[in-house]
Predict the 3D structure of the following.
Amino acid sequence: MSEKRNLIIGGLIIGVIAVLLVKLGNPANMGFCIACFIRDIAGGVKLHSAGVVQYIRPEIIGLVCGAFLISLFKKDFRPKGGSSPLIRFVLGFFVMIGALVFLGCPLRMVLRIAGGDFNAIIGLIGFFCGILVGVFFLKKGYSLKRTYAQTKLEGAGITIINVLLLILLVAFPALLAFSAEGPGSKHAPIIVALIAGLVVGAIAQRTRLCMVGGLRDLVMFKDVTLLLGFLGILVAALILNLCFGFFHAGFAEQPIAHVDGLWNFLSMLSVGFGCVLLGGCPLRQLILSGEGNSDSAVTVLGLFLGAAFAHNFGLASSAAGTTMNGRIAVIIALIVMLVVAFTNLQKADQA
Amino acid sequence: MAKRTIDTRGRSCPEPVLMTQNALKTDAELEVLIDNPTALGNVSRLLDHQKKTFRVEERGEEWAILVEA
């Protein structure tokens, strides 16, 4: 029971923090977006040259470090890895492409719904269908095999990388790229964003909050526990959006969104499917990487490279809509995910 | 009858829950080996849900859930 209560409270706090970050400068309906923020960081270190989405987002650094610190404190820090790292990297890559065709990770999808963006409801339907496809393969015996214990340095690696990014941002900003306009130029103050990330990282680590896990467990085990976190975020963000006048219901002219329904559906279908194959949404991957799971760290690097490709090859959507390259990339993503799913079915006696 | 052991160590969620659920279809008595708190919580929740009697043994950094018939 306390697990459910913690998830509701944790979700509510995250929803409030997300809207406050928008109030303090983040782009609309983007208090948190793991996909967008990792993409901004990829731009910040000049892996892509899309001028409007370049910034080292302290929220991401905070999320990883927050999960790391609380897991150390609670003796939950367990360095492990070795469960099909390359496949996880590739899945991370294609989940990012799906998210950038939709324009948001599952967390931002919830925040977009809370802002009245009906396109995100189409995305949610696609996301749910993707999860159903993933669950089908899980029930058939899909597995990326087991992890093994790793060294402390392997487990802490992604946290160290994030601390170095923070040092770069604060001490050597001249080395980095910063958007002068567009979403990348809109951000809350560094210290606020960092603290928000740390708090949300700690909450997400303690509650195991996961956007994909909630719907997956509902379908597989009729268990709503994880879904309560998802609902907490939605309710808190919706109420606060209404208070601040951020809520605008409809399809058209939503912030950093497009109205291409079919591709909102299909891109989030690929995200839902890919996330079930990975065992968690991009937020959960960040948190697990902070806890010492180097497979999740590799997944995060896959997301990072996927973001760079998405902008270098014109796959990412914009408010103007999807691109032909992006639509083709989503189809390729779905094919790759099907191949991964089929080729990783274990026989029942091995499972 | 010998108790069946399900080794979920190293498996990421939801595999430990799924493995336990599948094993319960054929065996009433089980020993489930677990190596992370997330899986411990999830498998316990499944067993609670199915109204099974079980106890959790701590074994160093790992756990064993013993499900009774």
In short: Strands of chain A lie at 80-81, 148-149.
